Amino acid sequence: MGRIVILTGAGISAESGLGTFRDEGGLWARHRIEDVATPEGFARDPALVHRFYNIRRAQAAAARPNAAHAALARLEAESSDVVTLVTQNVDDLHRRAGSHHVLQMHGRLAGALCDVCGHQWEAPPEMDEETPCPACHRAAARPDVVWFGEYPHYMEEIAALLAEARIFAAIGTSGQVYPAAAFVEDARAAGAETVELSLEPTAVSHLFDHCHSGPATETVPRWVESLLG
């Protein structure tokens, strides 16, 4: 029995209708990252940030897992290896598809976080600057997502997983945003076989042993079938 570590990014959820940073005309295209995805932006205009994430939360709730999510859930269920998903995504599509070993390094759209006491709870469908924390009762609720300038979750656990990986795969991610961008090099240093599955080649494709280009709903089920077959 070995260990398979899979990093997923926005590209795996794009075919479920959830936009990426790069989508023209999408939600992200209408806002500056500095305004809606940084602690400073939240401090300047919490109402704007809450409106932005209320829309994202509704979009994620309406989305459905696609064939790529389902294939990874099947891999976890049927593989003789231990499969762990490390996702940069804040949606819950991996879990809804049936995956259990999921580390959401950038947090959860479905979660709320108190900006004062740090309490975490399940977010209501909509929040605003008056939403109280159920623990300290301050009006200090924010989305429980990791913004630019904040430290991702589970980094020590992820480092330990990469050090033990037999296979490391990156799916639907540009591989250019740190610290996740370093995962392939960490896995290679530990002797893992490395695989990239992306819509098209990326700036870091040369770091992988194998690269598969195309829609995630096609490349991921085919790759999973090759592992299980």
From TrEMBL:
Binding site for NAD(+): 9-28, 88-91, 172-174, 216
Domain Deacetylase sirtuin-type: 1-229
Subcellular location: Cytoplasm
Key word NAD present: yes
InterPro entries: DHS-like_NAD/FAD-binding_dom (IPR029035), NAD-dep_sirtuin_deacylases (IPR050134), Sirtuin (IPR003000), Sirtuin_cat_small_dom_sf (IPR026591), Sirtuin_class_III (IPR027546), Ssirtuin_cat_dom (IPR026590)
Enzyme Commission number: 2.3.1.286
One GO CC annotation: cytoplasm
Annotated positions binding Zn(2+): 114, 117, 133, 136
Residues noted as binding substrate in the record, renumbered to the chain: 53, 56
Pfam families in the record: SIR2
Active-site residues (renumbered): 106 (proton acceptor)
A Gene Ontology molecular function term of the record: zinc ion binding
Known catalytic reactions: N(6)-succinyl-L-lysyl-[protein] + NAD(+) + H2O = 2''-O-succinyl-ADP-D-ribose + nicotinamide + L-lysyl-[protein]; N(6)-acetyl-L-lysyl-[protein] + NAD(+) + H2O = 2''-O-acetyl-ADP-D-ribose + nicotinamide + L-lysyl-[protein]
Cofactor: Zn(2+)
Free-text domain note: 2 residues (Tyr-53 and Arg-56) present in a large hydrophobic pocket are probably involved in substrate specificity. They are important for desuccinylation activity, but dispensable for deacetylation activity.
Protein task: NAD-dependent lysine deacetylase and desuccinylase that specifically removes acetyl and succinyl groups on target proteins. Modulates the activities of several proteins which are inactive in their acylated form.
Family: Belongs to the sirtuin family. Class III subfamily.
Protein name: NAD-dependent protein deacylase
Species name: Marinovum algicola
Encoding gene (name): cobB
